[in-house]
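Bench notes, afternoon.
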Amino acid sequence: MIKILNKILSLLNYEKDDNTEIEQQTPRLISNLIIFILFLVVFVEGIYTLLQEETFYAAPLLVFSLIFAFHFLFLGRKMQSMAVRNSFVVFATLAFVYFIVFGGSTGLNIIWTIFFPPFVFSLLGKKRGASFAFVFWGVILLCLFILVDVIPMAQPYTMMNRILFSLFYFLFFIVSYAVHHTFSEIILSKERSVLESQNFNKTQEELISKLSHQIRTPLSNITGIVDILEKTNLSDDQRDYINTIHASSNNLVNVVNSMVAATTTSFSQIPQEEISFNLYSTINNTIKLFQDEHDKKKFSLSLSADIPNSVIGNSIKIKQIFLNLLNSVLKYNKSESKQVTIEVTRKEAVSDRIVLKFRIVSNTVVPLPKEELQEEAIYSKDIIRLNASKYINLLDLGITQKIIEMDGNTLEIFPGSINTALEFSASFKVNTKSQSIEAIQENTRQTSSFFKPKIDIANANILLVEDNFSNQQIIILYIKNEVQKIEVAFNGKEALDKFGKVKYDLILMDVQMPIMDGFKATQKIREIEKSTGTHTPIIAVTANAFPEDKEKCLSVGMDDYISKPFQPEDLIKKIKQHLSS
C-alpha cells in the first residue's frame, strides 16, 4: 500500500527530475494533489448524477471535471506561469461556489471547500494566498446567508450548519496559514544557514590562503638565510643554535602546509570546460616534470592501441591528478632506482563516450598502519580494503580522491610487498578526428628534436620576476654560486619589456605582483612565442601553496612550480632540469 501511494505521489510531482528546489516542489505537489482529488470527486459525482438523470447537477459537474483534468494533465507542467496559476484559482473558485450554493446531488460537496486555503497558498504563496483565502471566506458568508435563500434549487442549509461551516472554514484557513508560514520559515532558515555556512567557509579559505601567502614569504627568507649560514664556518654552539632555528622553521612549514591542506575543500578553481587534447602528450609532459638527470627514475608510459590519441575532456584535471599521484608514489619511494609504469586501457565505450582506466605501478613500498593484524595477512585483499582510507591519508591523496570522485569515479590503491599500484577511471568524449596512438607517439618522437639544445646553468641567462626586494636578494643568494647572469624585473609588465629586448634561457616568475601579475605575464610571453616558434622555460616561484595554485600555474603556460619556503637545492635542481630538457 505504501509503495502504491509513493508511486502516485511521484506521478503528481512532475518536476521531480528537474533542478527545482524543495520549497517549490512541495507547493506544486500539494496543488496537483488537490486538483487530482477534485477531479475524481467531481467526475464520479457527475457520472452518478447523470445516471440518476439529474441533468441540472450532472452537466456542470462533468464540465468542471473536464477542466480539472485538463489542468492536471497539461497545465500542471507549467506551474511557473502566473497565467496558469490564476486559471487554476478562477476555475477552482467557480467550482467551490457551485458546491456551496447547490451542494451537488448529495448535498455534501460543500465540505470540499476546506481545500481552498491550502490550494491557493500552494499556488500563490503566503501573502496573495492569504488574501484570496480570506476573500473567499467572505464569498462563503455571502453564499450561505444570502444567495442560497434567493436562488432556486439552491441547497437548503439550517442556520446552525451555516454558522458551523463558516467557523470551520475560518479555522482551517488559520491552520493552513500557520502551516505554510512555518514551512516557509523553515526553508528560509535552512537557506540562510547554508548561505552563511558557504560564506563562512569561503571567508575562512580566503583568510587561510592570504595568511599562508603572508607567512610563507618571510619564512622562505628565514630558511634561506639559515641554509646559507649552515654552510659557513660556525662554532659548535652557533651550529647548535642554527639547527634549532632550522628545525623550528621546518615545523612551522609543516604547520602552514597542514593548515592549507585542511581548508582545501573546494575545487571551484579547476576549469570545468571540456576541450580536445592529446592524451599521450598530456601524460608524457607531466612525466617530464619529474625527470631529473641526477635521479635514477625510469618511467614507462603505454596506451592500448584501441584508445584514440585525441579525446575531449578536462585536460587540466587529468594533469592535476597525475601530478599528485606521481608526486606521492615518488615521495615514498625509498629505492635507489625508482621505476614507474603507467598503463591506460579502454574500460568501456558507450555511444560517443569512452571510459578509460589509468593504472600507475611504482616500486614504492607503502608503510602499513601499525595496528595491522598478523604478518602473513598484511597484504591480503580484505586488509587492503579495510585500510583504503588509511593509505589515501598516508599518501596525502585526500584531495586527489575528491577530484576523482567529482566525476563519479573512485581511486583504488593496491599496496604490496614489492610495489604499489594506483587505479582510477575517467570518462571522455570521442574526438572523431583523432589518430592512432602509434601515430601520436611517432609525432612526439619527431617533435623532441624541436627542443633547444642543453644549456649549462653557469652560462644561462636567467630573468627573476619578483616585486619584493628582500625576496629578490634571497633567491639571488640561493643561485648566485651556480648562475653567473641574473636580471631582475619588479612586475610582469617590466618582465615583458625585458623579454622583448633580451633572450633569456629561463624565467623565475612570481605570481602576485602589482601592475601585471605572473599569470598574465606568462600568457603574454606564450603569445609572443607562438609567432617566433620559441619556448622559454618559466618556473613559478610563489607563496601560493594550494594544490589548485600549482595547476593554475601550469594551465596558463608555466613549465614548473615551486612554493615558498623551499630548499635552495630544490630550486637549482628544477632550473637545471628545464635548461637541459
